[in-house]
UniProtKB/TrEMBL annotation:
Keywords: Transferase. The keyword Oxidoreductase does not apply. This is 8-amino-7-oxononanoate synthase. Pfam families: Aminotran_1_2. Its EC number is 2.3.1.47. Residues 69-413 form the Aminotransferase class I/classII large domain. It catalyses: 6-carboxyhexanoyl-[ACP] + L-alanine + H(+) = (8S)-8-amino-7-oxononanoate + holo-[ACP] + CO2. Its cofactor is pyridoxal 5'-phosphate. GO terms for molecular function: 8-amino-7-oxononanoate synthase activity; pyridoxal phosphate binding. The lineage of its organism: Bacteria, Bacillati, Actinomycetota, Actinomycetes, Mycobacteriales. It comes from the Bacteria.
Amino acid sequence: MTPATAGHGENFSLEHYLDPAAHTFEQRFEEFRPYVTNARGSGFVLREITGPAGPVVQVRDPDGGETRELIMLGSNNYLGLGSEPEIIEAAVAATREFGVGCGGPPLLNGTTSLHRRLEERLAETKGCESAMVFSSGYAANVGWVTGLLRNGDTLLYDEQSHASLYDGIQLGRVRSMAFQHNDLRHLRHRLMQVRWRNPGANIVVAVEGVYSMDGDIAPLPEIRALCDSFGAWLAIDDAHGTGVLGANGHGTAEHFGLGDGSVELYMGTFSKVFATTGGFVAGSRDLVDTLRFFARSYMFSASLSPAVVAAVLASIDFIDAHPERVAQLHDNTAYFARELRRMGFAVDPQTAIIPILVPQRLAVSEVVAALHRAGVFVNGVEFPAVPREQQRLRVSMMATLTRDQLDFALEQISTVARSFGFHPEQEGAA
Ligand code: PMP
């Protein structure tokens, strides 16, 4: 009944690295030093970007030397809105009008007319009665889990859920059980277990629309039907589905043609397609009104700055006015995947996330560093964020990348894979 410690998804924990015998702080710092040095040396993390968040970014080399231009294949800024002139203008105008920040949490002095407008707009786009904005997606997940669930309630969640859901479960000491990833039979089994023990229990089933590591989609209609037959609520984290799925970019529910109010709790972030920071929860008016007072990550945390709120509002307008941008993202993903398959890589992306597996014998960080030197920014993901045999390059597509830029990136991936001996055309590459 406790959350798994080594889930898939982004349930990353430093506990996996540290020796529990390392008692003093000095011992722990010493033990961790090789990881930090390796990370800096190979450029795996903390790369310093020195210019705008476009499809091509300027990045300082990890040794602090040269600054180079890299093709960006490692950003959640899927639609390229992070550098869209009219969105930048909206943020600048809001700063002039409201100042740089609120200097307080929403229930005190942190609610401007912009915040209100954004909440109304989010409720409208999600087809819900109400919505509330948090300072991050992480805070939104921790907030609803701890604010909604009480003793006797049960949360059933997909094992590949994001770390923020796991943290909410632990913080709220919520009775919970994981079900196997996207496995409807296992979910049904879990629902039967809970109902058998406690016929009247409140049950919430938590899934992600799009899972962040593999980019695969939850079978939402079937999950909805299961929730209905067991009288359970459905909560969806659509961090990676919003702006990516559905003809109008409204997310996973739209992708499946599910109508308004198809989930009881809708959670999303502004850190992906909206390329800023923040998160939200949408649902019934009662749910939102309650969470405003019981979600401590909302009540005790300062509101988003007006610039961010205005940027998100302008982004929603932009997506509504430019469905072709969403189509462009799909085209780019399909093209990139097709070319990778032509090279022999086994990829079949359902969304804008394209994982390319790297054999376990290699250090992913070195492959990432080689691609950096070759002009491509891509993130590596390794244990414990994913199982060891599934370490990978995690390509995130952008709508604003041109064919030439994509071809360049494909060529570099091919060359680097060959130099590390994992190009599928090479013998014994796997
Ligand atoms: N949920 C999912 C599925 C995510 O991928 C993320 C971000 N990685 C979050 C929640 C947290 O969002 P944020 O970065 O806005 O805090």
